[in-house]
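Hey team,

Filing this mostly as a record. A colleague (T.K.) asked me to run one chain through the structure pipeline before their review meeting, and I want the input and output archived in the tracker in case anyone asks later how it was produced. No errors, nothing strange. Just documentation.

Input sequence:
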Amino acid sequence: MLREVGGFAVLLGIAAVPSLAQNSDFGITVPVTVSGGALRSGRLQSDDPSVSPFAEGFRVMLYPTLKLGSHWFAYSALQVRLSPYFYYDADDPERELYTNTIQAYIGYTTRTEKTTVVVKAGRLATAFGSFALRYDDTDNPLLDQPLPYVSELPLRGDQLPCGTTDLLSQYYGYVQASCGGRPGWGSGLAPVTLYGLPGVQVEAARGHFDGRLQLTASSPSISEYSTTRLSYAQWTAGAGYTIRQGTRIGVSAFRGPYLDRAVASFLPVGTSVRDFPATGIGVDGQWARGRWNVNGEWQRFQYDLPTFGVSPSTTTGYVEAKSVITPRLYVAGRVGYLKNGGVTDGAMVSAAQYAPTLTSLELGAGVWLRRNLLLKGSYEWLRTEGETGNQDNVVGLELVANIHAINWAFH
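Output structure:
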């Protein structure tokens, strides 16, 4: 950890160098986004009421990019975060420093008169859905992320539940199943990860159509805090159609193993983790006109498990809207839900839902204090089915600065 932090510190030191370059087919750029945030939530006191409901953190995003002629390039998105920073960090009041690689790949692009093709290899943001590429704080008008990208389901890839009863005894983000795998409590699966997956991707665009095919060694459904990564090939694909400028509809899907090797010896004889895949399908849309921008997604996931006749499934959706009031001021809101399906185990024990439904509503605003300095805040209502009170609500502020730190051209 210290070595990684030291590397980031060197990059930050280099980022103080003023811009030197003009447009060129060869060059290095390192844009930087620095954000500081504060939040208040009863989530911080869920385990210890004596803990302060206030917390602060910071986030630094670095985007080193290398351009090598008209075809070859390298790109990365690197994160340093002191938590609690995100709203989902509020479930744990401990201050921890995280370093994450969101993207780091080599790319090749070629163009004809009507078609553009891009090939990427390295660590890639998932090709499933549309939100995963909006990882910069200026690309998200609010402070939280949609539920499928940050909720930790009461399922783990490195543990197996014994049946319906065992599954129902788990909690969001805090899981210890009983029928084999890595021991101890741990974080559950996020339906869609916001962090990089090792793999390759081909993208193509022609006219109003665009498409992408991604092959990775990890499932898009994986915990951010997982200490292991899968090593089973799987695919993700997506396509979109731009009806007119600002209006687009898209679809995406993925399928492949999500269980860890730690559970392999506990699976039924003659089967392997490949026989129990995770499957996701999704629809997304974007609409922009005048002062308004609207984004939305609908997604469904299924996680096949041994000894279950009906395996766990999850359906989610959200709609996000942003309205520009003045060139400096905007308001925004997002409403979403995450609903879990029914299950039936091998003993025919059933449940209508394997976990409670989550609903969220976040309202916020942002003001550009300067061209590269954004202050934004929001309040989020989060409800878990069957629970009352405002313990899970969060209010927060963020100050976001964009720095175009390095821009060197060479020939």
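Quick notes for T.K.: The CA atoms of residues 152 and 173 lie 5 Å apart. Residues 2-409 form a domain with the Porin fold (CATH 2.40.160.10).
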